[in-house]
Design brief:
Layout: E1 7-11, H1 19-27, H2 38-48, E2 53-54, E3 57-61, E4 67-71, E5 73-75, E6 81-83, E7 95-96, H3 109-119, E8 125-126, H4 135-150, H5 174-178, H6 183-198, E9 202-205, H7 209-224, H8 234-249, E10 258-261
Helix pairs in contact: 2-8, 3-4, 7-8
C-alpha cells in the first residue's frame, strides 16, 4: 500500500532508478505489459538515447526514499514530450504504488503528484500508447485531467485502435491454438504445416536467442534490404544495437524466437 506521509517529486532519468526498486514497483502493477520491464527501457536509451532527452519523473516517499511512482518520458527534437520509448512500444509505461482503500477516484496522491509535475513542464505532451486495461494507465489519465483543469490547460483523450494480435494466454501448443479456429482455417494451416514438414522444414523455438539474433538480422536484411530496419545507416545500426541489448537483458521467457530450418539450411 502507499505509505502515509509527504511525497518527494523529482526529474529522474532512468539512470537514477535502481533496477531492483523498478522491479519492486512493477510487481505492484499486475496489469502492466511486458514493455514496462526495466530491460526494455534500458535497451532503448542505450541504443537511441542520442535522439532524445530523458525527462522522466519519479515520486518517492519523502521520509524513506521508497519509489512510489515513475513516469518514463522523453523530449524529442520537436520539443514535444512523449511516453518513454514511444517509437518502439505497443503500450506505454506508468508505474504507480497501490492505492489505499481510503483513497477515492478523486484522491490518488502518487498519480496526482506525477500529473502535476508533468503539466508543470509547460511543453506539448503526447501520452501515446495508453492502455485502458492497465489500471495505472486509467489512474494516470484521470490524474492528468485533474491537473490540467487545475492549471487551465486542455487535455484531450482518445482511444487508439489496437493492432491485430493473437491472445496466447494459456496456449502452449499449436494444436491448442488451432482448436480455437473454425474448421476451414484449421484445415488450411495444417495443410501448410504438412507441406513444410514434407519438404524437410523443422520449426523449433530458439534455445539461445542472443546467439540466433544475427541470423534473424541477416534474414531481415535479405528480405527487406534498405526498406527494412537493419540498414547500413546510423539508424539501422541503432536498431540492431537495441535488439542486441534487449535480447541479452530481458527476463527469461519474455522473448521467444521460432526458427524454421531444413537439414541443408
Amino acid at each position: 500500500m502507499t505509505p502515509a506521509g509527504p511525497l518527494a517529486v523529482s526529474a529522474t532519468p532512468l539512470a537514477g532508478v535502481r533496477e531492483e526498486e523498478w522491479s519492486t514497483l512493477l510487481q505492484r502493477n499486475s496489469s502492466a505489459s511486458a514493455f514496462s520491464f526495466h530491460a526494455f527501457h534500458q535497451a532503448w536509451w542505450s541504443a537511441h538515447g542520442g535522439g532524445a532527452e530523458d525527462v522522466s519523473i519519479a515520486v518517492r516517499s519523502a521520509s524513506t526514499g521508497e519509489l512510489l511512482g515513475y513516469l518514463p518520458l522523453m523530449r524529442r527534437p520537436d520539443g514535444v514530450i512523449y511516453s518513454g520509448a514511444t517509437l518502439h512500444i505497443d503500450y506505454a509505461t506508468v508505474l504507480l504504488a497501490t492505492r489505499t482503500d481510503a483513497q477515492s477516484q478523486e484522491t490518488d496522491a502518487v498519480a496526482d503528484a506525477l500529473a502535476t509535475a508533468l503539466i508543470a513542464l509547460s511543453a506539448p505532451i503526447n501520452m501515446m500508447r495508453i492502455r485502458p486495461a492497465d489500471n495505472a494507465h486509467t489512474r494516470m489519465v484521470a490524474a492528468i485531467q485533474r491537473a490540467a483543469a487545475a492549471a487551465s490547460r486542455a487535455a484531450t483523450y482518445a482511444i487508439e485502435e489496437p493492432a491485430p494480435y493473437i491472445d496466447l494466454q494459456g496456449i502452449h501448443t499449436l494444436d491448442e491454438h488451432l482448436d480455437r479456429l473454425d474448421k476451414k482455417q484449421r484445415h488450411e494451416i495444417r495443410r501448410k504445416v504438412r507441406r513444410g514438414e514434407a519438404a524437410g522444414v523443422q520449426i523449433s523455438e530458439s534455445e539461445d536467442i542472443v546467439a540466433d539474433l544475427p541470423e534473424f538480422v541477416r534474414l531481415h536484411r535479405a528480405r527487406w534490404g534498405e526498406r527494412g530496419l537493419f540498414t547500413g545507416s546510423p539508424k539501422g545500426v541503432e536498431e540492431e544495437a537495441f535488439l542486441r541489448e534487449l535480447f541479452a537483458t530481458a527476463p527469461s521467457g519474455t522473448i521467444s524466437m521460432l526458427m524454421a530450418r531444413t537439414d541443408e539450411f
